[in-house]
Write a structure and sequence with these properties.
The protein is built from 2 helices and 5 strands. It is of the alpha+beta class. It has a domain at 9-68: DNA Primase, Chain A, CATH 3.90.580.10. The protein has a 5-stranded antiparallel sheet.
């Protein structure tokens, strides 16, 4: 049995957000909406993040990666070509 190890959340978020330490947490500007006052908090002890500002979203390192680097729309490939109507 193997346990999946997630990367440290501070290291991942710091690649996209300018974080500053404030006690046991890190604070920065939210990358998901425009703001001037830092409202984006990273909690390394819980490996979680949260925006207390305009968007109010939160999550873990996987959620952050999914939001910061969204994958292209995964629509199923069309298996049947469209029907052509005779003129």
């Amino acid at each position: 049995m193997s346990v999946a190890v997630q990367p440290d959340i501070v290291g991942v978020v710091a690649q996209h957000v300018d974080l500053r330490r404030s006690g046991d947490i890190y604070v920065g500007l939210c990358p998901f909406h425009a703001e001037r006052t830092p409202s984006f908090f990273v909690f390394p002890g819980r490996q979680r993040w949260r925006c207390f500002g305009g968007c109010g979203i939160s999550g873990d390192v996987s959620d952050f990666i999914a939001r910061i680097k969204p994958e292209p729309n995964r629509c199923p490939a069309r298996t049947n070509p469209p029907l052509e109507r005779g003129v």
